[in-house]
Amino acid sequence: MIACARPALESDRALAERVRRQIRDGDLHQALALADRGWARWQRRPDSETHWEFRLLRAQVLIHQGKAPEASALLAEELPPGDRFASLRVRRLMCLGRVHFLQADYPASRRLLEEALRLARQRSDPLLLAEVQLWRGSTLARSGQFDAADQAYREGLELAARHGDLYLEAAGFGNRGFVRLNSSRFDEAIPFFQQALRLAERAAARRFHANTLGNLGRCYAGLGDYAKAAPLLRQAAARLGELGDANAEQIWLGNLGETYHLERDYPAAASCYLRALEISRRLSNSYFTLMWLNKLTELGLEAGDLRQAESCNREALELAPRVATRDAGIWSHLWSARLLAEHGRWAEAEARYRQVLASASAPEELGVTWAAHAGLAALYAAAGRPRQAEEQFRRALSSLEATRSRLSRDEWKLSFQARSLRFYQDYVDFLMSRGAAERALEVAEASRARVLMQKLGLGSDLLRTVSAGRLRRTAREFGAALLSFWLAPRRSFLWVVQPGAVRWFPLPPEGEIRPLIEALRGATEGLQDLIATDNQAARRLYEILLRPAAPLLGPRARVIVAPDGPLHEINLETLLIPSLPRRYWIQEATVAIAPSLALLAEGRLPARRGPDSLLLIGDPSPASEQFPRLPEVEREIQGIRRRFAGSGHKVLTGPAAHPAAYAQADPANFSLIHFAAHAVASPDNPLDSAVILAARPEAGKLYARDVVAIPLAARLVTLSACRGAGARLYSGEGLVGFAWAFLQAGARNVIAGLWDVHDSSTAALMEGLYEELAAGRPPAEALRTAKRALIASRSAWSKPFYWGAFQLYSRAEPF
Q1: Dihedral (Cα; 353, 358, 363, 365), 10-degree rounding
Q2: Degrees to nearest 5, angle at CA 436 with 434 and 442
Q3: What pLDDT shows up at residue 575?
Q4: Rounded distance, CA 667 to CA 671, Å?
Q5: Residue 733 has pLDDT above 50, yes or no
Q6: Which end of the chain is flanked by fewer CB atoms within 10 Å, N or C?
């Protein structure tokens, strides 16, 4: 009998270990099948440890699957007394706490896990204690006790790391990220999730890895970086569905829906929300059922489907009292206020908004605070109470700025800026409807280039410091007309700022302008001669965007343009004036581009004195197969060198043109800096865009993020490399890439390209540019003269593709 029993006992242990491995690996279907096999052997022996081990393992799998009632039935019975059941008793309390967590009964969950913690501290099992703290931390976080949650996670993480449990260590990092995510500190959460991903890969923890992908996606969505968020969330939902984790699947489906929602893809958002809602109802998960009902309510309001919005909101308001979180009903009440306002029940709507604001006091509730103030602003505007509306718009802005101030990295600030665009559009539209055109201009300009200005130490409170009067003075100081464009879904605007007045003109909605921009971009990059083909998009865009202002500007105008949205992707100089013969706008105007007019007003710099000094970097060697030597770059460099010879200039070519050489050359001492080399754009991470220089032991790339960190005082930085203007368009910030980076570093003007241009035409353009600069011409005039020479050449280079790519981006001294 003993000989037969021993292998059976070993088999039970091996089977239990296999269940635990499958849980960690993420194959919940297989884990449950194995747990059922062990349970079947010992189901009739409730007095044995093995019975309870498999019973608790079955419960744990069911909990991971979101099946709280089934797990609860397994856990209802108490364990037998005695010290041999002590660790299993802790595990039963942990499982019961998690069941209540799934049922959104967080007070009960917290009590059970506190008892589990007390018992675990009496055991000499550090990994059991680590598990308790990690599960307990999740309950604390969901209850809004974020500091206590982080402390619990930290202890669990330290124990796991000390005792070499990669899975629990990954969970510790992931959960610490989760605390930050749930208090809207998205940028702080990302490094924790990235570390959790690395550890999960090493531990082969597929389920945890998939959930961490979802959490990363949620962070990027929170920062407004939907292009990064959506693939991560789709991947997380699909993997967890395959692994049988329905509860996690519905979480990431819902978050994917929110990403589509923010991108205004309402059908895709509704599909994801409804699939998530169906799963959460099936699992009796009231917390997430409430969440998806709220999301569907919001979606219905935005898409104009009030019937759906009202149906979902009624159900959410009924469910909210049964969800035991401090802020359970806050979003339901916010959307009910919106619905009341839609039906003209303004007094009730106002009271409901006030109720929301009274209950939203924690830092993590800035999102609902911002939305409630914006809702009140819209309510007062519709009720003809403009003073109160303006006050609420200002309070909403304050909430926005409080959220922005908590972000640490530029990429995340840029994405958050895009997320707030809709609010600024509503604010500007409200002001224009009230006839407050100058105030609307101030708000529009206060919304632009916030990250760039902050890095330059400017504009801490732009709505107070940027006034229409100050912009008029700026126009006088620059001797130029300032054009501010604002593209929005309902209607767009152009403001023309001159020393004596600010005038404005209505423009069509963005939806009418964008297709023309895309058509012009396609024709230009398709090497069309826009004049010879009498390009309709170039003509129509002139009629829409510039003709209203033409009588104010006159011939030979000097103009500084603050573009908006897709206008950043074209060169307005290429628009066709309706004259005979046809002419490009560049033939009537000298044009510079400003990230914002506020930057010009706030960042006024004294004129730079003394002769120019040149730092020229380019034609690096050795070349590579991926980045071969540019045949015309040597000609470009030699043409520039001839005009700037002497000891005050520095030229770095060949092996000397390596990335570190830029900082070593003390670029702050030069008034002109020129790069002639290949470049690569990074749409996903624009500050990872790079100029390709000579390879050293380190990689041969000078990154935009490195440029930002090296102070400059240059009058002009020129990038004859490809796509230097920017790799990605951010709402409110424009194209972000090298032009943005050099302006942030302190350059007064930057010349950079919107698209890839042939190096032969670029060499000719640069030769003309530096001939004018050497003759003392200011940057904008020098660039215009060089472009007009190409236009007049009657060669292939007269097409806008060859000269229209390059623009002057300015914060001082363009003329």
Answers
A1: -30
A2: 135
A3: 98
A4: 9
A5: no
A6: N
Q: Among candidates 645, 595, 614, 662, which has minimal Cα distance to 814?
A: 595
Whole-angstrom distance, CA of residue 796 vs CA of residue 527: 9
List Cα–Cα distances, 241 to 206, 207, 766, 815, in angstroms. 12, 10, 57, 60
Q: What is the pLDDT of residue 9?
A: 43
Please write the tens of the pLDDT for every residue from 278-315. 999 998 889 899 999 999 999 999 888 999 999 999 99
Q: Which residue has the tokens 């033409």?
A: 550
Within a 10 A sphere around the Cβ of 51, how many other Cβ atoms? 20
Contact 730, 447 (CB under 8 A): no
**pTM for this model (two decimals):** 0.67
- 3-class SS at 93? helix
Cα(278)–Cα(561) distance, integer angstroms: 50
Cα 801 from Cα 211, distance rounded (Å): 46
Q: Which range among 134-148, 160-174, 225-239 shows the weakest confidence by mean pLDDT?
A: 134-148
Lowest average pLDDT, out of 201-215, 377-391, 674-688, goes to 674-688
With beta carbons less than 8 A apart as the criterion, state whether 722 and 756 touch: yes
Helix (H), strand (E) at residue 340: helix 330-342
Tokens of 95: 């499982």
How many helices (DSSP H) and strands (DSSP E) are in the chain? Answer: 37, 18
Q: How far apart are CA 64 and CA 247, in angstroms?
A: 7
Q: Is 100 exposed, middle or buried (0-12, 13-18, 19+ CB in 10 A)?
A: buried
CB 361 within 8 A of CB 345: no
Mean pLDDT of 377-389: 89
CA distance 275 to 238: 13
Alpha helices, DSSP H, located in 206-245: 206-222, 226-243
Q: What is the pLDDT of residue 75?
A: 92
814: three-class secondary structure by DSSP: coil
Dist CA 44 CA 47 (whole Å): 9
pLDDT at 399: 79
- What pLDDT, on a 0 to 100 scale, did the predictor assign at position 736? 46
Q: What are the structure tokens assigned to 497, written together?
A: 């700022």
3 state DSSP class of 343? coil
DSSP assignment string, 511-568: HHHHHHHHHHHHHHHTT--TTTTT-HHHHHHIIIIIGGGHHHH-TTEEEEEE--GGGG
| Structural contact between residues 752 and 724, judged by C-beta atoms closer than 8 angstroms | yes
Q: Of 190, 174, 109, 85, which is closest to residue 415 (Cα–Cα)?
A: 190
DSSP label of 27: -
Q: Is the pLDDT of residue 631 over 70?
A: yes
What's the token pair of residue 313? 């909101």
Picking from 653, 741, 641, 652, the residue whose alpha carbon sits closest to that of residue 690 is: 741
CA distance 102 to 784: 65
Question: Nearest 5°: phi and psi at 185?
Answer: -95, 65
Residue whose C-alpha is closest to residue 442's, from 413, 484, 387: 484
Q: Are strands 806-810 and 749-753 parallel, antiparallel or unpaired?
A: antiparallel
Give residue for tokens 């009903």. 329
Rg of the chain on CA atoms, in Å: 31
How far is Cα 613 from Cα 610, in angstroms, rounded to an integer? Answer: 9
Instruction: Write out pLDDT tens, residues 6-23.
Output: 344 447 888 888 888 888
The amino acid occupying position 811 is: R
pLDDT (tens digit per residue) in 22-75? 888 778 888 888 888 888 888 888 888 899 989 999 998 998 888 888 999 999
